[in-house]
């Protein structure tokens, strides 16, 4: 920096004081310029840092946006998976209920069929028992008839025998014998 050259006048300022003031001002101005230069360097450095931090902020904001988008997407996918799983579970439950009803109906039908078969078999067996009882009664009646016929035949044989025996006079004891035989 150049120092201005002042003219000297009689009644003017003390040239030494002015020079000292100028020197001091020059010194302060040099320091101010150096400080200004330093501050400009710091400002430039801060601008670069600010720009770098701004870029990093944009990068992190983009990451945040991407993460939010991913989170929203994951939430949507999770909801879709949940809905799909619920739908499949409902379909499986309905299929199981339908199959269960079919099996229950089939089991009921088979049970009713077996019950009817058992009732028919029971009716058949009861009819067989009734038939056997009737047959037994018929055989008992035949036995009674045969016993009567046998008794009659024995009686008739006894009479024939007594007729075939040589005739002797029947005595009172012999008369009783045939009647006793008759009672047999």
Explained architecture:
It is built from 2 helices and no strands. Helices cover 88% and strands 0% of the residues. The model has no long low-confidence stretch (mean pLDDT 85). With 184 residues, the protein is an all-alpha fold. It has helices at residues 15-164, 172-183. It has one domain. The longest helix is centred in the middle third of the chain and has 150 residues, at 15-164.
Computed CA radius of gyration, to the nearest angstrom: 72 Å
How many domain regions? Answer: 1
Percentage of residues in strands: under 5%
One letter per element, helices H and strands E, the order comes to HH
Give the tally of β-strands. Answer: 0
Helical amount among residues, as a percent range?
over 70%
- Average predicted confidence as pLDDT: 85
How far apart are the termini? Answer: 182 Å
Number of helices: 2
Find the structural class using helix and strand composition: mainly alpha
Major β-sheet profile: none
Shape: rod-shaped
Q: Are there runs of 5+ residues with pLDDT below 50, and where?
A: none
């Amino acid at each position: 920096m150049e120092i201005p050259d002042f003219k000297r006048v009689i009644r003017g300022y003390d040239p030494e004081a002015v020079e000292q003031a100028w020197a001091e001002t020059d010194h302060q101005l040099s320091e101010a310029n150096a400080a200004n230069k330093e501050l400009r360097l710091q400002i430039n450095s801060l601008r670069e840092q600010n720009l770098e931090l701004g870029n990093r902020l944009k990068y992190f904001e983009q990451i945040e946006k991407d993460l939010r988008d991913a989170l929203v997407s994951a939430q949507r996918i999770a909801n879709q998976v949940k809905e799909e799983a619920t739908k499949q579970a409902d379909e499986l439950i309905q299929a199981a209920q339908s199959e269960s009803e079919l099996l229950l109906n089939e089991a009921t039908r088979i049970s009713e069929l077996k019950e009817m078969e058992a009732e028919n078999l029971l009716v058949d067996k009861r009819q067989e028992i009734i038939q056997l009882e009737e047959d037994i009664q018929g055989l008992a009646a035949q036995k009674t008839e045969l016993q009567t016929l046998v008794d009659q035949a024995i009686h008739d044989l006894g009479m024939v025998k007594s007729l075939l025996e040589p005739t002797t006079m029947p005595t009172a004891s012999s008369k009783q014998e045939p009647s006793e035989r008759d009672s047999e």
